[in-house]
TrEMBL record:
Species whose genome carries this gene: Symbiodinium pilosum
Domain of life: Eukaryota
Acidic residues: compositionally biased ranges: 171-184
Name of the molecule in the record: Uncharacterized protein
Residue segments, region Disordered: 148-228
Compositionally skewed regions (Basic residues) per UniProt: 190-208
């Protein structure tokens, strides 16, 4: 019965039964049903099926999106404990930047703030499991004619079943059509049908329309892609502007040197060349200014603002002590630290950050970022009172400065500039947490909470401009040139050694100088004497300057500035060559003004400017840079940090400063 007859190819059972007969698992059930029907075909065909359906459905919904590290804290509410929050964010960043493919798919730059890096974060996974159990009873009758012919569809009330299933307002019948077309002639009906037939597009025309639509869509996508690439290229060119500005300044320096040589020539050709070169130099500086303005309009100083915010409005945050000399009374009373930690200033620890580039293999640069306390064991010549506290100069830099990050130039240059920005961003966030949440330490047999207050970022002007993305800085207008000192003595002693040498030299040679140059060299000797007096007071003092020491240092600083201006005026008037050694007069004026302001305000203590010096920090930069030259280039960062930790441990255990 379940097979088609050889003559007519018909079945004596329902097609569903024939399909089940082909399956071995259900064939036994069909045989049992046929036996239960006692071999009667009609009874077998009128069968009762009991269908038991079980349905289990699992639905997962993953909420994801691009988030910056700041948004992970605010919107995703990665809240306490803060350590787990930072670990979670670090894990997300590490996963999204592990491979080149992940960096391409799981990270992107913010549309409006190009310096902000966003990461693809799976916020939550919501699941829904549904289980349903249903029993369905259906009675099916299979009518099979003896001769195999199909029976006509039964009619109810002389109408087709489709008429019975029509809905109000949606029904459609031939009677309605006939009613509408009663007054239409047959010829008009045929013409309308032919017209409608013409409106129906052929399969070939449909394919051509689809092809045209696809072509338009592709062209639109291609144009959008080209526009996006153009914007991305423009942004990359914008990132190259600082490098171009630096190259322009270097070219201007070379042009100035050439123009100085042309001025010495008296020939007509030299004068013409000098005029042309002067005009070109002016155009070059105009181009420099235009590029700088363009960069300033599209610039980004968000990281600097964020760092200032995290450091508690960094200006001159000082050592915070309460009840032991009242050192900070009146120094910066409006500072945020007094509002946040005014009740426990004795448990707020000061911190300073330093960043600078060292030199590694093939004279390539390596960024070294460290931190230290301004409090230390003083200097070797200090003779100040205990209430002035001590500067952080004595001791090996391994034991007084602590490495935070080491990063080779190729890791953060050009298109990878965001790497260094991310390092500074992580540092700023950790400083923010230390300032507001603090840290618990074991003091004796009890746990005590301390807070960290950051004084500021130390470093030379180029590194300040680089890390802060400054658009208005010392190289904004004009030409500058950095000179690298060399010698066998310690780099931090260059200034004091040179000043002491020239003071002694001029004292011996001044009697032999002619009267024409006597005033010139006498002013020079006064300048060196004032500079040595200035440095001597600072190095012999503690972290804080008393009013007497502050007055002596400020007076020496003003005397040096006055003598230097006299020398510069004399040299300019006599058309002498430029000085081979030039002080940073701008910085010197700020330092002196800082002490003068303290005296005018009547402060009992003024912060020693040596607390912001970088000579010991640069010593650590040189040591860590030398380590990078002794490790594998494939694992330079990891192996450098391991060697640094070994040296740190040995110096901390072997150094005893008291």
């Amino acid at each position: 019965m379940c097979r088609k007859s050889a003559k007519r190819g018909t079945l004596q059972v329902a097609p569903e039964v024939a399909e089940k007969w082909k399956t071995t698992n259900t064939r036994k059930q069909i045989l049992n049903a046929f036996i239960a029907a006692k071999g009667n075909k009609e009874t077998f065909n009128c069968r009762m099926e009991i269908l038991i359906k079980q349905k289990k459905e699992l639905t997962l919904s993953i909420k994801s999106g691009f988030y910056s590290e700041e948004l992970m804290k605010t919107e995703l509410k990665f809240k306490p404990p803060i350590a787990l929050t930072l670990d979670r964010i670090k894990a997300i960043v590490r996963y999204c930047t592990a491979t080149k493919m992940r960096r391409k798919k799981l990270t992107r730059k913010d549309k409006y703030q190009r310096h902000v890096r966003e990461y693809w974060v799976d916020v939550e996974t919501v699941g829904k499991l549904e289980t349903s159990h249903m029993e369905e009873f259906s009675q099916k009758y299979t009518i099979v004619d003896e001769d195999g012919s199909e029976l006509p569809m039964p009619e109810i009330g002389g109408k087709s079943p489709s008429a019975c299933l029509s809905l109000d307002g949606d029904s459609y019948s031939d009677d309605d059509d006939d009613g509408e077309n009663d007054d239409e002639s047959p010829s008009k009906t045929k013409a309308t049908k032919r017209k409608n037939k013409k409106k129906t597009p052929s399969p070939h025309s449909k394919r051509s329309i689809l092809r045209d639509s696809n072509k338009k869509t592709k062209s639109v996508r291609k144009a959008a892609k080209a526009k996006e690439d153009e914007v991305e290229a423009a942004l990359e060119e914008m990132d190259r502007i600082p490098t171009i500005l630096s190259e322009i300044l270097k070219l201007r320096i070379k042009m100035d040197n050439t123009m100085d040589k042309l001025k010495a020539c008296k020939e007509e050709d030299a004068k013409k060349s000098l005029a042309n070169m002067t005009a070109q130099a002016d155009k070059l500086m105009l181009l420099h200014d235009d590029l700088a303005e363009l960069k300033a309009e599209h610039g980004n100083d968000a990281i600097l603002d964020k760092l200032k915010k995290h450091c508690g409005n960094v200006e001159k945050l000082t050592i915070l002590r309460k009840g032991k000399g009242a050192t900070t009374d009146g120094y910066d009373a409006e500072h945020a630290v007094f509002a946040a930690h005014g009740q426990h200033l004795d448990r707020v620890l000061p911190l300073q950050i330093h960043a600078d580039e060292g030199q590694t293999l093939k004279k390539s640069a390596v960024m070294i970022i460290s931190w230290q306390s301004p409090l230390g064991f003083g200097t070797s010549v200090e003779d100040d009172v205990a209430a002035a506290m001590h500067l952080n100069f004595i001791g090996n830099s391994y034991a007084t400065r602590y490495l935070f990050a080491v990063c080779t130039k190729k890791t953060y240059q050009k298109k990878k500039a965001h790497v260094l920005d991310n390092i500074i961003d992580i540092l700023a966030k950790e400083l923010y947490d230390l300032f507001h949440d603090g840290i618990w330490l074991s003091v004796g047999n009890e746990k005590v909470q301390f807070w960290i207050a950051t004084l500021g970022l130390k470093g030379d002007w180029p590194i300040q401009s680089r890390l802060g993305h400054l658009e208005r800085h010392f190289a904004r207008k004009g030409v500058y040139q950095e000179s690298a000192t060399s010698g066998s003595w310690f780099k931090g002693a260059d200034t004091s050694c040179v000043c002491l040498f020239f003071e002694e030299y001029l004292e011996k040679k001044l009697p032999d100088i002619s009267n024409d140059d006597l005033a010139y060299f006498a002013s020079m000797l006064d300048a060196f004497r004032s500079a040595n007096a200035f440095l001597r007071v600072l190095y012999k003092s503690g972290l804080w300057l008393s009013q007497d020491r502050c007055r002596a240092a400020a007076q020496a600083g003003l005397d040096f500035i006055r003598s230097y201006l006299e020398i510069a005026a004399m040299a300019h008037e006599a058309e002498r060559t430029r000085f081979k050694l030039t002080p940073k007069l701008h910085a010197m004026i700020h330092i002196t003004d800082h002490m003068v302001s303290g005296l005018e305000r009547g402060l009992r203590w003024t912060l020693n400017p040596l607390s912001e010096s970088v000579q010991m920090d640069e010593d650590l930069v040189g040591k860590v840079s030398s380590i990078t030259c002794t490790v594998s280039t494939r694992q330079v960062h990891l192996q450098t940090i391991r060697k640094y930790l070994t040296n740190l441990w040995s110096h901390l255990r072997g150094t005893s400063c008291s």
